[in-house]
Amino acid sequence: MFGFSTTSWVFFSIAVSCAIFSSFLVYQEIGEVNRKLPDDKQISYFGMYPGKMAMIKREYKRLYPVGRVDFWRVAFQIAAFVFLALVAITAGFFR
Fold first, then answer.
1. How far apart (Å, rounded) are the C-alpha atoms in residues 12 and 9?
2. From CA 86, how far away is CA 81, in angstroms rounded?
């Protein structure tokens, strides 16, 4: 059986914080891209799926070649998954 220790809760809190911050960065990316796109080509803020995320990333890289928002978004997404893995390890999920 597995259970959440204090360490597990700390890792879980950090993971959720990273995921939330990453989602804010996605919305910032969409806003920056939409500022430079014509009205008929605007990207909706709702309904995320892998193809749409790839399009947002592609458009962001095209319009902002030295922009760092996408880098930080990906970094926070990776951090969220790493901390979730640490939650699983410290909670005893793999025992």
1. 5
2. 9
